[in-house]
Amino acid sequence: MDTDYEVLIAGAGPTGLLLANELGLAGVRAAVVERLPLRTGRSKALNLQPRTAEVLDCRGWLDPVLDRSLTLLPAGHFAGLPLHYDALDTPFPHQVGIPQARVEEFLEDHLAEYGVPVLRGRELTSFRQDEGGVTATLLGPDGAERTVRAGYLVGADGGRSTVRRVLGTPFPGWDGRIGMAVADVELVAPAAAEAGSAGPGEAWRLPDLTPDPAGVAFLLPLGDGVHRLLLGGPEQQGVDRDAPVTEDEVRTALARCPGPPRELRAVRWASRFTDAARQAERYADGRVLLAGDAAHIHAPAGGQGLNLGMQDAFNLGWKLAAVIRGRAPDGLLATYHAERHPVGARVLANTRAQTVLTLPDPDAVVVREVFADLLAVPEANRRVAAMIAGTDIRYPMPDAPDHPLLGARVPGVRLPSGRGVLLAGAASTAAAATDGWADRVDRADAGPAVGAGEALLVRPDGHVCWARRDGEAGGLRAALARWFGAPRPGPSPGIA
């Protein structure tokens, strides 16, 4: 294929940059195009959920991200109601408090290891696809247009995605009902308890989203005298989403925040948002795919947006690499939409529900009280916590023997090579069956992960695609072929 790049990614946010790292790890010739000439430094999203921490740890990338973090929050929330992460089956029972800008910084810097360029100051304005690839038009910083050719195009270019618009993909959903805003603000002489850098000694609090006709006002320390302000009151309703957030709005919200009086020094950055919820009907159309906010938008309730997009990228990257390398079985790329669209739909549903629970309406207040009572039940709390944390995601695995772990992720598994792995107990006879896939599937002693004689086949994204109980047999070679393509020529001993 005569192309400039095997994959062109539009958008240098966390979704696009994580996808670029996944493709770079697999040796794919990729590039990221971003219309902004420089990183903005805006904090934007502020957390990594447990499943996203697992994703980064799976590739060995979590530790350098933690070095850039502000704090760990050992809880989540559903509309401000506490969720207990210590009951979750994960090595990371907490949220990582980190501005989105720092996540992007790490991911972009790490691309240098693979030689994947981020082409800043270049805006994708149009494209056309054919059987052999995608031809995209980029507008450069000098106003000149350039045409590039790629095997595949991935739109990770946000909620107002140009890729989605040009593709013509329907984006059905619900218009926003309420208006809110966020701002990074500098305060004059902040209180001692809020000064300096946030850290373990200054644990972040859960937001107070109790319905109040006066609106929501919540302040979170980001360090060095900078705070994140969440504001949603009468002043934000009916205002155009693109209208600037005024200093008067910020001062009014600051006066509503609990604690000592605060004086505004400056607004570093501010943006409006609504509770609009929309999802692309298709995440893939020929050689063009959508991920992150280009595929779905929703209210930032529970802190799920950045995480949903990064997990899209983690699901897509290894599949797209396998297709490009000619190792993918038929239909592998179609599983991206099949697996991730339902996950996105569920996030849209739970964020809409959370919005309802924060409305200052008498009926909503009663429902919130009932829901708070339910979350006091440990099992109910654990179930909702796992949904928000992303640790309960279980992908359908057709034609595989039933097993409690089938389709679920394996907590703590590390796959720094980006390949699959067969985790086998000491007495398992399954290992020999992977001989024909040795270039795509590693073998590892499962240790305490499985019992003697048992085995788990784990995809590059950490999800189990085949599992065997002691005394059972069959299906491993079929699962290997289904997820990793045809074996190399030659004998492949082992179970069927």
Automatic annotation (TrEMBL):
<keyword id="KW-0503">Monooxygenase</keyword>
<dbReference type="GO" id="GO:0004497">
    <property type="term" value="F:monooxygenase activity"/>
</dbReference>
<keyword id="KW-0274">FAD</keyword>
<dbReference type="InterPro" id="IPR050641">
    <property type="entry name" value="RIFMO-like"/>
</dbReference>
<dbReference type="InterPro" id="IPR036188">
    <property type="entry name" value="FAD/NAD-bd_sf"/>
</dbReference>
<protein>
    <submittedName>
        <fullName>FAD-dependent monooxygenase</fullName>
    </submittedName>
</protein>
<dbReference type="Pfam" id="PF21274">
    <property type="entry name" value="Rng_hyd_C"/>
</dbReference>
<dbReference type="Pfam" id="PF01494">
    <property type="entry name" value="FAD_binding_3"/>
</dbReference>
<keyword id="KW-0285">Flavoprotein</keyword>
<dbReference type="InterPro" id="IPR002938">
    <property type="entry name" value="FAD-bd"/>
</dbReference>
<keyword id="KW-0560">Oxidoreductase</keyword>
<feature type="domain" description="FAD-binding">
    <location>
        <begin position="4"/>
        <end position="350"/>
    </location>
</feature>
